[in-house]
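Hey team,

Sharing the tRNA(His) guanylyltransferase run so nobody has to redo it. Sequence (257 residues) first:
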Amino acid sequence: MANSKYEYVKKFEVDDKLPPHNWIVLRIDGCHFHRFSADHMFEKPNDENALNLMNICAVTMLEHFPDIVFAYGVTFILKETTEFYQRRASKILSLGVSYFTSVYVMKWKDFFPHKELREPPPFDGLKVICCYPRAKIVRDYLAWRQVDCHINNQYNTCFWMLVKSGKTEREAQESLKGTLAKDKNELLFQQFSVNYDKLPAMFRKGSCVYVDKVEETVKLDDSGNPVKRVRKKVTVGHFDIIGPKFWNEHPYILEEE
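Structure output:
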């Protein structure tokens, strides 16, 4: 279009370049995913295979896009100095969602070998956030997401236990209306002998995906002694990211320039 009379149309393009020196948060979300999970008969309240499929998609995202330094579930943190696609929000959003969705489809059979993928998985980019100029704010954002994970999982665990015990969904909702966390814990233990704190950490805490530094044996020397090197490896774990322990042990993840 250069040097043509039509070049003026470029003036109407929207500049969506995100400001520099801000951590970028890309949050992918399922669009009408309740229907998708019902159509594919996912286990309620948590389908371990479905969650592990999401985890491997997140791992692949970190392996493919090195500027992503951390993921919590399907929330991805890009380092503050990234120049990925010139920090253009639309490019980051569209490429992130399309790649994640493609991996989900390709990896489906690895986790559901006897279940056909009946329809395309509906993911969208819920938002790109660029207003986090400090790592402390990113940590607070991730803490908020983990608190939300706990609240939702505790409620859903109670809800589906009640439904499976014979209550209708409306009756289960009424039973849980106005209950506090301690009430839900007591309900699970008294009625179903379930200790909430003993449920798998992946359900209660969510999944963290990050690049870990691990020591691996690369060869043996002439004397037969192992020669070790520190290498980077994308790792999935289920940790408390609200407190300081995880971040103190992995300070390089949100290291500020």
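The first helix runs from residue 33 to 39.

Ping me if you want the raw files.
A.
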